[in-house]
Amino acid sequence: MDNCIFCKIIAGEIPSTKVYEDDEVLAFLDITQTTKGHTLLVPKKHYRNLLAMTGEESAQLFTKVPNIANKIMKNLGAKGMNILQNNEEIAGQTVFHTHIHLIPRYAENDGFIGKFTQHDFDLSAIAAEITKD
């Protein structure tokens, strides 16, 4: 993609701080550093987001997550890891090139807030909607 910042990083047109690279993926430090070590893992081939990828293509990306995440945790002394992937603007995607956020966690007040809100939905009705042809 001509205007994709991540494609430009992959091509070496824009500098990045790399933490992992192979033929299929690149992992580099997010410039925002939500927490120390906040890393982005991207496929080298451009996809708008995960929803545009096949199972095989996404498997090539996700198979790298455990190794990189564990290395970040071990070497930076993190106590946990949020692994986040956003699809489309409504879900928080701001760069439209598939990417996974690896956000090391050090304490409850370390700069990242991720909370779930409970709702009283009819789960059976939702499942029926999802599984209909």
Highlighted features:
133 residues, alpha+beta, HIT family, subunit A, 4 helices, 26% helix, 19% strand, globular
Structure, described:
The structure is a single chain. The chain has a single domain, classed as 2-Layer Sandwich (HIT family, subunit A). It has four helices and five strands, in the order αβββααββα. A five-stranded antiparallel β-sheet has the order 1-2-3-5-4, covered by helices on one side. The model has no long low-confidence stretch (mean pLDDT 96).
The CATH topology name reads HIT family, subunit A
Strand content: 15-25%
- The structure class reads alpha+beta
Distance between the termini: 34 Å
Helix tally equals 4
Bulk shape: globular
CATH architecture descriptor name = 2-Layer Sandwich
CATH superfamily: HIT-like
Could you give the order of the helices and strands? Answer: HEEEHHEEH
Overall CATH class: Alpha Beta
Motif (Histidine triad motif): 97-101
GO molecular function, one term: catalytic activity
Protein name: HIT family protein
Domain HIT: 5-112
What's the quick description here?
It contains 4 helices and 5 strands; from the N terminus they run H-E-E-E-H-H-E-E-H. The chain is of the alpha+beta class. It has one domain: HIT-like (HIT family, subunit A).
